[in-house]
Amino acid sequence: METSKPLIKPQAIVFDMDGTLFQTETLLIPAYHNVFNKLREEGLYTGETPPEQLMLGSLGMLLEDIWKVVMPKEQVHVHRRADELLLQFELQGLQEATSKLYPSVPNTLWELHDRGVKLFVASNGLEHYVKGVAAAHQIAPLFDGLYSAGEYATTSKVDLLRRLMDDHGMERIWMVGDRSSDVEAGIKNGQTVIGCAYAGFGKEDELKGSDVLIDDFSQLLALYDQAAE
Questions:
Q1: Structural domains in the chain (count)
Q2: Strand ranges in 103-211 using DSSP code E only, listed in sequence order
Q3: 118 shares a domain with 201
Q4: Read out DSSP for 76-124?
Q5: Mind listing the pLDDT tens digit for each residue in 193-211?
Q6: Are residues 88 and 140 in the same domain?
Q7: 0.70 exceeded by the pTM?
Q8: Which range marks the domain in which residue 81 is found?
């Protein structure tokens, strides 16, 4: 764990979903291959399925931007059909109960909740996906709000975090996430950023600018307990 400055206890802690709370690849990779199998079946896509790393490396972006990376030559209607299929297969996967949170996530969230900390999610994902993951893994009741770009039609995590803070009248939060979009959201809203360095989806400098880097989710407890009032 690396800390660049003393921390002050926040009014709330806001979490990214993919790569922070949720081991996204446990759900995404099977769904990803099913999407391309279905697109080929429907005559919307030909050729091999693009490398999985293109998808994993784009996590944290808006879905419409992810498809521009994964299949840049395809038309918009193919991307929108891929949106529909990905959500369909991911929701099916959640029902099959094969996906996973990171090991220390449930206990740590419960401990923070028991300390009276307000908890939120801010994700660039689709509404039903974000809420579906939280419900399937039985952590939804711990959160005061599950914010997603899909529900609020925001074009960046910066805007989504500002909407969340305004809705709840908060001026001091911790933004916890694993991608540069999380760091940017925290910095541009003048907030503390806790970078999660355990997912490994991003580039080497993905978390540059974070106030703290953690390599296990459970380290949040010590950070919160040691933070000044």
A1: 2
A2: 118-123, 145-148, 173-177, 192-196
A3: yes
A4: HHHHHHHHHHHHHHHHHHHHTT--EE-TTHHHHHHHHHHTT-EEEEEES
A5: 999 998 876 666 889 999 9
A6: no
A7: yes
A8: 25-95
